[in-house]
Structures are given as structure tokens and as C-alpha cells.
Amino acid sequence: MKRILFVMLSAILLASCVAPETQPPAPVTPTEPEKKPEPPAGPSEKVPQPPKMQSIHWDSIVQPLVDQMVNANSVEAGKLLLVDSVKNNTNGSLRTLQATDVITNAISSRQVFQVVPKSQIHLAREALGLSAEDSLALRSKSIGLARYLNADYVLYSVVSNNHGQRDLEMQLMLVKTGEILWSGRGDIN
């Protein structure tokens, strides 16, 4: 019964539909585009120069800190060290990769630690799902990466802005416990 009623209602609905009348397409008349006069050739406007990055001589800042760190009492020579990338906690832009490279080179030249190579750090970041842009802003992430790489120490570095003066703070941490074994600070001019 319901089927018959449904079929009848469908037939009535379809019968009430009227096909729309077809209209012929509107005529198209081609027109030529208007020619705009060319602007007169005058002096070209100069593009403003972007602000120049302040160059920082990282060697003079890092070298005394590295000297202090390798001479700290609780540091054992020959251990594996992860040099974590420098964090920028200022509101300006800094070349933190350059600073990280300077720190790594300064430590490697002292031959006190075995430094984890960049290629291993890159592979470990990929394995842990950390992008190359992730600056590991938390010490716990740095320690987690160091544990994954079986490092004994991790060097955590951050540039901060204190009362208008920027400084680089470095902390050497024991990976097993997270204990800070050494801490140093240098002014950035």
C-alpha cells in the first residue's frame, strides 16, 4: 500500500514539472581593447635597502666560555657531547646556526670531548619527528635528543635580552640526571 502511494505521489510530482523554455544565446560582438598610453620614462624609483644584519663576532664571546667549561671540576675528558643549537630568546633576528657552528668548532679544537656530528643529530631529529626548524627550546627536549644519541653531556645555549643587553648563556648538563654541571654567561656587543 505504501509503495503504491509513493509511486502515485512521485508520478504527480514529476507530471507537475515543466521543462524550461530554451532561449537563444545572446549575441556576442567583438571589441578591440583600448590602448592605454605608456607612462613617460622617468627616473626609476629606488627600492629601499633592507636593514643589515648586525654581525656578531661569536668567537670572542664563545672562546672564553668554552675555556671555562672544559676546565670545570666535574667534567670528564673523552666523553660524548651533544652541542644543541643556540636558542634565540630575543625579539631580534640572530644567526644562531653560525653561533652553534662556532661553539662546536671551539669545543672540537680543544679535544676534550667527542662532539656528536651534525649528520647524526640530523638523523636523530628525523627519527624523533623533530623538524630542522625546531630549536628544542626546552632543556628536556635537548636531554631527550642526547639520550637518543647516547651522549654523556649536552651543551644547552640561549641568547636572551636582559635590560637591553643581549647575552649568551651556556649550560653543560649531565644527560643521565639532567644536573647542570657548569654554567657560564657572556655579553654580546
From TrEMBL:
Topological category with respect to the lipid bilayer: Lipid-anchor
| Nucleotide-binding among keywords | no
**Localization:** Cell outer membrane
Keywords of this entry? Cell outer membrane, Cell shape, Lipoprotein, Membrane, Palmitate, Peptidoglycan synthesis, Signal
Q: Which GO terms describe its biological process?
A: peptidoglycan biosynthetic process; regulation of cell shape
Q: Which InterPro entries match?
A: LpoB
Which molecular-function annotation in GO is an example for this chain? enzyme regulator activity
Q: Which residues form the signal peptide?
A: 1-19
User: What Gene3D superfamilies does this protein map onto?
Assistant: ABC-type transport auxiliary lipoprotein component
Q: Provide GO CC annotations from the record.
A: periplasmic side of cell outer membrane
Region Disordered: start-end pairs: 21-52
Specify the domain of life of the species encoding this protein.
Bacteria
Complex and partners: Interacts with PBP1b.
- Give the protein's function: Regulator of peptidoglycan synthesis that is essential for the function of penicillin-binding protein 1B (PBP1b).
UniProt family annotation? Belongs to the LpoB family.
What is the name listed in the Swiss-Prot or TrEMBL entry for this protein? Penicillin-binding protein activator LpoB
* The organism of origin for this protein: Xenorhabdus kozodoii
